[in-house]
Amino acid sequence: MVKWLVATYQVPQILFMRSLVIVLITGVLIRYHRHPSIFKSPYRNTIVLRAGLMLGAWLLFYNAARHLELAELTTLYFSAPIMVMFLSILVLKEKIGPGRWIACAIGFIGVTVAANPTHSPNLIPAAMCIVAGFCWAWSTILIRLVSRSETTMTQMYATSLLFGLACALSFPWTWQEPDLSGWVLMICLGLVSTLGQFLLYEGFRHAPASALAPVEYSGLIWAFIYGYLIWAEVPATNVFAGAFLIVLASLLLIAWEQRQANLRKRRAPC
């Protein structure tokens, strides 16, 4: 949906409509369930910082989408889970075992192969996508911090509200009246984003950031499928190779985590 929309509309307008849908849905649910106001939370400043990081991430990502094929765009953006692993050590003080380090190294090699920095004709969009991944990685770590005291719905509401207000400032220069298909796509993007954000927040609330992040790599498969079916995009060989390494890293990590879980069960007292 993003690649369709950025071909016609400006990025801030798309992001505003996406945020508006999230704010409307979460606002109703917060009022119904009487969630506490996040603006009285000790994490207010963290919420503002996270909104800024997300704004930077999506502005860079959506602009990169104008120049990169879907498979290449998604492959490069998935450098974020690798960065999450490093940040989880520095910020969350999570312990990283050898299995996670191996998966991280393979994933990093995969991103480098896919980006092909020495020969890529789209080096600047590729760099934008990787920086977007870094911003997203930081925002993911902040989810984990804020989730210690705040509900998922209140986090989504506050972040999207700040996000949307920032995008609205650009309307005098960027607003373009959407046609029917534009309205439908923007609303659908907001609905899908609402569900995706809820699942992501809940996942990071209940699982270590360094263990959960690489599972996002499964989205690569769908990016390749949608890119081919919708735009007839056939990625370059280096993108296929990089994606293979990234998916391999994810599968190795899942196997490692399962092995560690089995070992903990065996050591647990009966």
From TrEMBL:
Protein species of origin: Ochrobactrum sp. PW1
Record-annotated membrane-spanning stretches: 12-30, 42-62, 74-92, 99-117, 123-145, 157-175, 181-200, 212-231, 237-256
Subcellular location: Membrane
Primary residence: membrane
Domain EamA positions: 2-113, 127-254
Membrane topology label: Multi-pass membrane protein
PANTHER family referenced in this protein's UniProt entry, alphabetically: ACYL-MALONYL CONDENSING ENZYME-RELATED, SOLUTE CARRIER FAMILY 35 MEMBER G1
Annotated SUPFAM superfamilies: Multidrug resistance efflux transporter EmrE (SSF103481)
Keywords: Membrane, Transmembrane, Transmembrane helix
A cellular component term, taken from the record's GO annotations: membrane
Name of the protein in question: EamA domain-containing protein
Family listed: Belongs to the drug/metabolite transporter (DMT) superfamily. 10 TMS drug/metabolite exporter (DME) (TC 2.A.7.3) family.
